[in-house]
Amino acid sequence: MLNLGPFTNVLNTPFNRAGRYQDNYLEQIFGRPKETRYVPSKEAQRLLDEFIENIGREMKIKPFTDEDVERSKIALRNERGAGGMYKPNEINTVYLRDNVPLTTLVHELAHASDPQLSLDNVMEIQKHMSQGPVPDNLGPTPNAVSFFDKENRADAFRHYSREPLHVYEAEVLAEKAADDYVKEKGKGHFNYRRIDEYPRMYIDNFLNEVFTSKGLLDYGNSGESKYNSSVRRYQYDQDQLDREIAQDPRMQEEIQRFSNRMQSINDKYIGGY
């Protein structure tokens, strides 16, 4: 049924949903573009009001478009994609897909209140990432150590690991906020995932890219998706790279540093979870 307007203030939806997008077709009657607005559920509106009270900013909710979803599928390397997004250059806006769980809203609001995701911090990290550690990487995958000379691999790994660790910490913080919300307010309404399940995807994708040989990267970029006889000729390259990394003391030191940083993030936000 069409909503001809005006918009309702809140939706009387199940407790575990954040809200729905509604169209106001009256605008077209007066020759103006159709207006689409997010109408939050009662609980979502309470969360938004609480955010204003605690943080001092009124948040707008805008559509997480089909194009955004497709881009998130590529970034996350899964078929589901993300349910929402927060952009540090739009500090008063979160983007949500239609009818997402309340926990998605809690997650994005946690990003919006996270000092680590201030525009200055994010731009500083992007500047750092754009300045490669050494000039010899001419490959299509900037952070893959196989594209670096052996003596530069440890420096490359240390340099390129900064961004995924920053993302991991921000995502763990947001997932912890959603998990806390479920435990405090949403008992009986949610079965939430482990706090580190979603953030770990960013780490796994990074490490898979970093430690995959040139040959297997080329094979993957060719569009092949199955392991078959044609990939066996690339396996030697991968085995050789694995041996070189295992026998490189500096590389092992940097891998341990990376692991220690992940553990410190888990200890900070998750503890004995």
Keywords:
single chain; 273 residues; mainly alpha; 2 domains; 3-stranded mixed sheet; two-stranded antiparallel ribbon; 8% strand; disordered N terminus
Task: Walk me through the structure.
The protein is mostly helical and 273 residues long. The chain has two domains: 8-22 and 34-101, no CATH class; 114-273, no CATH class. 52% of the residues lie in helices and 8% in strands. A three-stranded mixed beta sheet has the order 3-5-4, covered by helices on one side. A two-stranded antiparallel ribbon has the order 1-2. Helix 6 (153-160) packs parallel to helix 11 (249-269), helix 7 (162-185) packs parallel to helix 11 (249-269) and helix 9 packs across helix 10. The radius of gyration is 22 Å and the shape is elongated.
Helix-strand layout with pairing:
Layout: E1 19-24, H1 26-29, E2 35-40, H2 42-55, E3 60-63, H3 66-76, E4 84-86, E5 93-96, H4 102-112, H5 119-130, H6 153-160, H7 162-185, H8 197-210, H9 214-221, H10 232-246, H11 249-269
Parallel strand pairs: 3-5
Antiparallel strand pairs: 1-2, 4-5
Helix pairs in contact: 2-4, 4-7, 6-11, 7-8, 7-11, 9-10
Order of strands in the sheet with the most strands? 3-5-4
Instruction: Please report which band the strand proportion falls in: under 5%, 5-15%, 15-25%, 25-35%, 35-45% or over 45%.
Output: 5-15%
Taken from the alpha-carbon principal axes, the silhouette is elongated
Helix content: 40-55%
Average pLDDT, all residues: 80
N- to C-terminal distance: 45 Å
Quick one: biggest sheet? 3 strands, mixed
Number of helices: 11
How do the SSEs run, as a string of H and E?
EHEHEHEEHHHHHHHH
